[in-house]
Amino acid sequence: MFWHTWTVLDVYAHRGLHLSQRENTVGAFRAAVAVGVDGVELDVRRSADGELVVHHDPAIGPLVIGESLRRSLPDYVPTLDEAMDACEGVLVNVEIKNEEGPHEIYDDSGELARQVVTRLHEINWADRVIISSFDLATCAVVRSFDEGIQVGWLLRSGDIAKAMTQAHVLGFNAVHTHFKTLSAPLMAMARGLDLKVNTWTVNATRDIKKMSELGVNAIITDDPVLVQRLVHQVAPQ
């Protein structure tokens, strides 16, 4: 079986290679693997009948995923199993969508997080993923449920230094920061706390180069081919 360890700077395809395929689909994930990415980022939700499915938004047209049966969702929406199968050979950042807002169904019991981790173990993926979420409680549940799985807390803005300290105290492995919030002092702080920094969503040449110069561990991008060319000097595909 293919084995891959975390490298100095990994390139992750945000929702798969969606510049040429529909995002968060089997086609997008396979296309990303085909161009040689280090990893894929995807979003997992739960349907009304308890199926783990991959989709970014909480609703698809009039269908609220959390209130809909798996069989009623469009055919292009993969299950978590199908998505992971399409990502064979690379690392996967599994973002657990557990937020409050329109059409969102927030799980405050930790059941969703535990279900995701359990399923990843059952399909032999737990050692090739990093689980992330914007919801701190979800990240904490994952860490308490499984001491070995990689956990990264997604951060939009705010006091990043304070968040890094929280992540360290809670035993997370990484913070996933928006690229505009990063600086050299914050990167130095992360290293001191033994935290990896995986940044999103980095698409412009100047921002890609800046993140590389700062020494981030991973770049999550909508244009992985461009990032590979700039960071790894990969020949054009």
What does this protein look like?
There is one protein chain. This protein has one domain (10-232): Phosphatidylinositol (PI) phosphodiesterase (TIM Barrel), CATH 3.20.20. Strands 1-2-6-7-8-9-10-11 form an 8-stranded parallel beta barrel, surrounded by 8 helices. Strands 4-5 form a two-stranded antiparallel ribbon. The model is unreliable at 1-7 (pLDDT under 50). Helix 3 (111-122) packs across helix 4 and helix 7 packs across helix 8 (224-232). Strand 9, helix 6 and strand 10 form a beta-alpha-beta unit. The protein has 237 residues and is an alpha/beta fold. The protein has 8 helices and 11 strands.
* Poorly predicted spans: 1-7
The average pLDDT value, as a whole number, equals 94
Number of helices: 8
Rg over alpha carbons:
17 Å
- Specify the CATH class: Alpha Beta
CATH structural fold name: TIM Barrel
Summarize the structure.
The chain has 237 residues and is α/β, with parallel strands linked by helices. The chain is built from eight helices and eleven strands.
Keywords:
237 residues, alpha/beta, TIM Barrel, two-stranded antiparallel sheet, 8 helices, disordered N terminus
What's the SSE blueprint?
Elements: E1 10-14, H1 26-34, E2 39-46, E3 52-54, E4 59-60, E5 63-64, H2 80-86, E6 91-96, H3 111-122, E7 129-133, H4 136-145, E8 150-155, H5 160-169, E9 174-178, H6 184-192, E10 196-200, H7 205-214, E11 218-221, H8 224-232
Parallel strand pairs: 1-2, 1-11, 2-6, 6-7, 7-8, 8-9, 9-10, 10-11
Antiparallel strand pairs: 2-3, 4-5
Helix pairs in contact: 3-4, 7-8
